[in-house]
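Most newcomers find our protein records easier to grasp once they have seen one. Read left to right, the backbone structure tokens trace the chain's path through space. Once this layout is familiar, the rest of the handout is easier to follow. The record below serves as our worked example for the rest of this section:


***
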Amino acid sequence: MAKVLCVLYPDPVNGYPTEFARDGLPYIDHYPGGQTVPNPEKVDFAPGQLLGSVTGELGLRSYLESLGHELVVTSDKEGPDSVFERELPEAEIVISQPFWPAYLTPERLAKAPNLKLAITAGIGSDHVDLSGAIAQRVTVAEVTYSNSISVSEHVVMMILSLVRNYLPSHQWVLDGGWNIADCAARSYDLEAMEVGTVAAGRIGLAVLRRLKPFDVNLHYFDRHRLPAEVEEELNLTWHDSVESMVRVCDVVTINCPLHPETEGMFNEELIAKMKRGAYIVNTARGKICDRDAIVRALESGHLAGYAGDVWFPQPAPADHPWRTMPHHGMTPHISGTSLTAQARYAAGTREILECYFQGRPIRDEYLIVDGGALAGTGQHSYSAR
């Protein structure tokens, strides 16, 4: 019997939904580029259900219990008396989502001698100490591409919300006003602006493709340059450094993984090199940006706006300054957990578990760490630390 410890975000404040706004989801069988969607032998949920909260259980309980395994699901993950801390020493598998991460720190890994597999239900495994997982020979896997398009759509929404001053304008309606001048005083067209992405992987490239019809000038920085035909198709300008790109951009979107090379990248010095009145959208990881440098740049007017749905830590404390800084469009970490995305990453989690219990190889594109080394997607996206 394996103990599977699953950390998910809490249910809605009014209780788990008894019905949903739509009856099902559109069907897709592959992602851009040809990778197939998760393909488990079976799922025990209806696509479109809320699977990422505690009651949803990623649709895993009946499957795991039918095999004789124990499933512990909790949202209580912080502090020495949390359910997560109490259950971790006996856990063979830990599952969590980037939106409500169970941080597997070196200290926690040391307390988990039975841990064999850490699964990210979604994309981004930086909440796992990868060097510790390598040393302890813990396999780390994530459901690559499951919510990349979900995040890219969120990026485009946030760019438009900032540039068009949508959120303050909506607030005037809620407050009973009709203050057109107040709304228009910070509203611009996105057309013809210079827009750049830090990283042009699955999410960054999807953002670029979605922005092309807006007739903007597109830029990107990535240590892996895109094929020439893609650059030509999207009329992209590649930059060999982040500094080169941010100097010319009106909008910068951050879509790179968090690792030692990117932590704190957008600090006081880099932000000072950006155009006055530029916007930043960050749906990657909160620690890529210096928290207080962002606040100061918004307060001084050097940045015209900042939006994102990633914070550090997560959940963000009530006094986190990004909640109250001017001209922001922050959300909780929701970009990759739409009901559409949940159906895919829940199915992908089930597929990974089926492979593990049946002794079959886990898809290479799902692997981050395996056999005591970076593996699969992890070799491309992360650096050993």
Observations:
- The first strand starts at residue 3 and ends at 7.
- Residues 339-358 form the longest helix (20 residues).
- The chain is about 30% helix and 15% strand.
- Residues 276 and 302 are 5 Å apart (CA to CA).
